[in-house]
Design goal:
The chain is an alpha/beta fold and about 550 residues long. The chain has 17 helices and 18 strands. A 6-stranded mixed sheet has the order 5-6-7-3-8-9, sandwiched between helices. It has a 6-stranded mixed sheet with strand order 14-15-16-12-17-18, sandwiched between helices. Strands 2-1-4 form a 3-stranded antiparallel sheet, with no helix packed on it.
């Protein structure tokens, strides 16, 4: 894969400027950069969904498989098996062959092109292992821990986490020559993650992955492609993510030293030029030297290294409008299940205390996100009661980022009568939105950028109870750490579904609700690690 002098803009927003890189066949590459740098945009260019304004990106017409970060619910009425098997276009190829046979049977000669097309289709069937594809798919589902009994169910009946896992299995089964994976570990439990790590390391093709999972990157990649949001360029580093951090840190240190030397030289030239300008008009030698130094000064200024930008830390000073109750929430004998499925809970009961940090854990499909939707009255329980104290004000962060209007700009999404425009711009800068960033339409932003908008809206509601559904899923490691530290300072109640151990540790969890059993346990690091091993995926 080769990119040469790529240039791309979205309106006035420059994404790439003279960006180039070369990757070899079989490379395992981690794509890194801050939220909004253009990582997912690069995938869209590779897939042909976006056309560059200038330059080129060549993939050699290889078969490309893509796992997006956000799985769109477009499954019609197909079963899990049909969805997985159609990762390879075997059925579509047979359908096209049938159409060719029908045309030939009804025609009157002139079959040369039809026969050539049939030969190409037969080659495609051979490539996709037509006669052993089902056997290979069964082996893959077994390795990924997908139960046989789930294969006959409709895709629409699965939980969000299960659908994500199926999407990953389908992507791996597709037998692509280039794999594009956008945050793949968001969809994997620990056991499956171990299998996929080994699978990708030995994958007979090129793999490009966007991931905030440092351990996952370190275990697989042999190169890092860094997308620089400031310079709009790309740089390839050999080695894994840890090697990239070391090499890029050394580069920054060298650039800082060079800048320091440049500034010293500029200061000396400025002083000389000033003396020359102030010298007597008859001092022709000094005047000539001053003009020469002034020319050198202009050149030095033009060559001056830009200072390293330090991104502001996200400030989550969420002081509630009013103090909450001692017991803001009681759940009594709650029962719920989706149509045509078993009950997720039968007699789920618990109480949450004021200012408590309450973690919901469990495997994929046990109803973690569903519980938050029940608390928010987005779903109706089959039995039982959910009682909020009247003094409880709720702010809800959903995985789907539903509160972010894609048609509005960043600023329009968060505007509230309590703050002037200039104050809102200041608040947004705490969420890494600077200057022109606030005028970007949310629909054009990355999931990580939209997540920051949603978290900003949470702050502005000034609620005394937060319901958080995987709040760090789309965020880079630096931002994750910042948000965890700020939520730790939040004086209200937090109920959180999270697969991020470092975030959970940061906010100070006091108790854990374990689904589907409904058991309540005091927080312990060992118990957290146990459930992290069982499930690190979004529901």
């Amino acid at each position: 894969m080769k990119a040469k002098n790529m240039r791309l803009s979205f309106g006035a927003e420059l994404i790439y400027d003279d960006a180039s890189f070369i990757l070899e066949d079989g490379d395992k590459v981690g794509i890194v950069g801050v939220n909004g740098a253009g990582k997912t945009t690069l995938f869209r260019v590779i897939l042909g969904e976006l056309e560059l304004d200038g330059g080129s990106l060549y993939t050699g017409k290889k078969r490309i498989g893509y796992l997006p970060q956000e799985i769109l619910p477009d499954y019609s009425d197909e079963t899990v098996w049909e969805y997985l098997y159609d990762g390879r276009p075997i059925r579509k190829i047979h359908e096209e062959l049938e159409r060719i046979y029908s045309r030939m049977a009804a025609g009157d000669g002139g079959y040369e092109e039809e026969l050539k097309r049939m030969d190409r289709l037969q080659e495609e069937l051979s490539y996709y292992d037509e006669y052993t594809a089902e056997e290979k798919l069964l082996a893959l589902t077994d390795d990924m821990g997908i139960p046989t009994e789930i294969l006959g169910r409709k895709m629409t009946e699965l939980s969000g986490g299960q659908k994500s896992k199926m999407a990953f299995a389908r992507t791996l089964f597709a037998k692509s020559e280039i794999l594009l994976l956008d945050e793949p570990t968001n969809h994997l439990d620990a056991e499956t993650k171990d299998f996929v790590t080994k699978y990708l390391k030995h994958y007979n093709g090129t793999v490009l992955m966007i991931s905030h999972d440092v351990d996952f990157l370190n275990a697989i990649v042999n190169k890092i492609l860094y997308v620089d949001k400031l310079t709009k360029k790309t740089t390839v580093y050999r080695g894994n993510y840890s090697d990239f951090l070391r090499l890029s840190a050394e580069e920054k240190r060298v650039r800082a030293l060079e800048r320091e030397q440049q500034l010293k030289e500029i200061k000396e030239l400025e002083a000389f030029v000033k003396r020359a300008r102030e010298a007597s008009a008859t001092n022709h030698a000094l005047k000539r030297m001053g003009l020469e130094r002034e020319s050198r000064l202009q050149k030095k200024r033009s060559e001056l290294n830009a200072p390293e930008r330090t991104y502001k830390r996200v400030k989550m000073d969420i002081k509630p409008r009013r103090e909450g109750a001692k017991v803001p929430l009681e759940v009594e004998k709650l029962a719920f299940g989706y149509p045509n499925s078993n009950l997720l809970y039968r007699e789920l009961s618990f109480k949450v205390s004021g200012a408590e940090r309450f973690l919901v854990v469990g495997e994929n499909g046990v109803g973690k996100s569903t519980l938050l939707k029940l608390l928010m009255n987005e779903l109706t329980p089959l039995a039982g009661k959910i009682r909020f104290n009247p003094k409880t004000d709720i702010a809800y962060y959903a995985q789907e980022l539903e509160e972010v209007d894609p048609e509005k700009t960043v600023l329009e999404n968060v505007l509230t009568p309590e703050y002037a425009d200039w104050q809102m711009r200041g608040i947004l800068s705490n969420f890494l939105f600077y200057e022109k960033d606030v005028n970007k339409r949310a629909g054009l932003l990355s999931p990580g950028e939209r997540a920051r908008i949603a978290l900003c809206k949470i702050l502005l509601k000034k609620a005394n109870m937060l319901l958080l559904d995987e709040p760090t899923n789309h965020l880079d490691p630096e931002t994750q750490a910042i948000i965890g530290g700020n939520f730790n300072l939040f004086p209200g109640t937090i109920i959180v579904v999270s697969h991020n151990p470092s975030f959970v540790e940061q906010i100070g969890i006091s108790r854990m609700l374990i689904l589907p059993s409904g058991r309540i346990e005091n927080y312990s690091h060992e118990l957290l690690e146990y459930y992290y091993e069982l499930n690190t995926a979004e529901e």
